[in-house]
Automatic annotation (TrEMBL):
One of its GO terms (molecular function) is DNA binding. Belongs to the 'phage' integrase family. It comes from the Bacteria. The keyword Protein transport does not apply. Residues 103-186 form the Core-binding (CB) domain. Residues 217-403 form the Tyr recombinase domain. Keywords: DNA integration, DNA recombination, DNA-binding. This is Integrase arm-type DNA-binding domain-containing protein. InterPro entries: CB, DNA_brk_join_enz, Integrase-like_cat_sf, Integrase_catalytic, Integrase_DNA-bd_sf, Integrase_DNA_bind_dom, Integrase_recombinase_N, Phage_int_M. The keyword DNA-binding applies. CDD domains: INT_P4_C. Gene3D superfamilies: 1.10.150.130, Integrase, DNA-binding domain, Intergrase catalytic core.
């Protein structure tokens, strides 16, 4: 049997300052370890099964002799009960580490957006992601760890306040965005298993098909014959918003494309506006032939110091989303009731995007221009993949005639485009 160590007193232990390992007695295997630097700590040398263990019990004098003996007795009792204190401590440490590595959904969203922000089409797109998740996801699952989120939580989020039925398009985007955040969390090892926000084979068995819940609404559009009246009224309006709206109408572009127009994109001599791919919905560069009216509008505009924006706000920034809408509402409110700028199908005030519909209706009903030229003027993607593969040009010169006829119709109200020849007789 090993020799039993003499039980040292607290004073004797205090005098142990030379480097080494000293048995202090009281509990078998309890030692005071003194390093060359003078640091002292408690070590319990004990055999656990077939393994020799040195179990640390804390530093001296922070842990006094009496406490060290109490800790040593407790460890020996664990060993007698079949528990390995070292393995138990390691498991506890790993469990704590795992918990600190588990993200909440809000934290996962923040990290995901920081990583993916460069992939968004523009800052507005990124802001839409943030807004959707903050408004609808955060109140329901934001504080939950990503590994705790279940199908029931996602279903609750999508159906709360009848979101899935009353705001179906928003709910669809929300579901897709939550799915992507959780996919990212799974790939990063923060969660395992199926994605509870997945639609196919998952939520499609719990929620009605979004295509059958609500019918897509169309943007309120101005009747063709009201266009000249609206254009004359708009020309009399002042402000950057009014000029931007007028430019958007003359070019048949989307409001965000017109608002983001920069002088560096415009060649007044060539009567051409080249919108870079990153600002286009289809992520493809779009060349817009400028009519004489559009060129005249641009030449009359002042250049603003400190910004290259063609239509800046008063602070030299991008116009807000509601600026162009506000112009239309002021115009509608300035004329007698019943003579306003309304869509006859919905009775709603026309929208900025609706003028693209007016342009398309005019081109299709009042002119002989082929549909592909009209669609290209609107920068619509060719849905027929075979046709898209063979289409190399953008029909710029043909579209130049189209946009000139459109500008003339907006100003005069005459169907100038219906007599425009598409091909010369000699070309047939």
């Amino acid at each position: 049997m090993p020799k039993k160590a003499r039980e040292l007193s607290a004073i004797e232990v205090k005098r142990l300052t030379a480097p080494g390992l000293f048995a202090v007695g009281g509990v078998a295997g309890l030692h005071l370890q003194v390093t060359k630097s003078g640091a002292r700590s408690w070590v319990l040398r004990v055999k656990v099964g077939a393994k020799r263990r040195d179990i640390g019990l804390g530093g001296y004098p922070d842990v006094p002799l009496t406490d060290a003996r109490a800790k040593a007795r407790a460890k020996r009792e664990q060993i007698a009960a079949g528990i390995d204190p070292v393995e138990e401590r390691r498991a506890a440490r790993l469990s704590l580490l795992a918990q600190t590595q588990r993200l909440t959904f809000d934290e996962a969203t923040e990290k995901f957006l920081a990583l993916k922000r460069h992939e968004f089409r523009n800052p507005k797109h990124a802001a839409q992601w943030e807004s959707t998740l903050a408004t609808y996801a955060a109140p329901v699952i934001g504080r939950k760890r990503v590994d705790e989120i279940t199908l029931a939580h996602i279903e609750d989020m999508l159906t709360r306040d009848a979101l899935w039925t009353n705001k179906t398009e928003t709910a669809k985007r929300l579901r897709g965005r939550v799915e992507k955040v959780l996919d990212w969390a799974t790939a990063g090892g923060h969660r395992t298993g199926d994605n509870p926000a997945r639609w196919r084979g998952n939520l499609d068995a719990r929620l009605p098909n979004p295509g059958k819940v609500a019918t897509k609404g169309h943007h309120a559009a101005l009747p063709i014959d009201d266009m000249p009246r609206f254009k004359r009224h708009l020309a009399a309006m002042e402000g950057s918003g009014a000029r931007c709206l007028e430019f958007a109408i003359l070019t048949a572009t989307r409001s965000r494309e017109a608002k983001g127009a920069r002088w560096a994109e415009i060649d007044l001599d060539a009567k051409l506006w080249t919108i870079p791919a990153e600002r286009m919905k289809a992520r493809k560069e779009h060349r817009v032939p400028l009519s004489r009216a559009a060129v005249g509008l641009l030449k009359a505009l002042p250049r603003h110091e400190g910004t290259d924006l063609v239509f800046p706000s008063a602070r030299g920034k991008l116009l807000s989303e509601n600026t162009l809408t506000a112009v239309i509402k002021r115009m509608d409110g300035a004329i007698p009731e019943g003579q306003g700028y309304r869509d006859p199908n919905t009775a709603g005030i026309v929208t900025t995007h609706g003028f693209r519909s007016t342009f398309r209706d005019w081109a299709g009903e009042r002119t002989a221009y082929p549909g592909d030229i009209c669609e290209m003027a609107l920068a619509h993607t060719i849905k027929n993949k075979a046709e898209a593969a063979y289409r190399r040009g953008d029909l710029l010169e043909k579209r130049r005639h189209l946009m000139q006829d459109w500008a003339k119709f907006c100003a005069e109200g005459t169907a100038q485009g219906n007599a425009t020849p598409i091909r010369r007789a000699s070309d047939a």
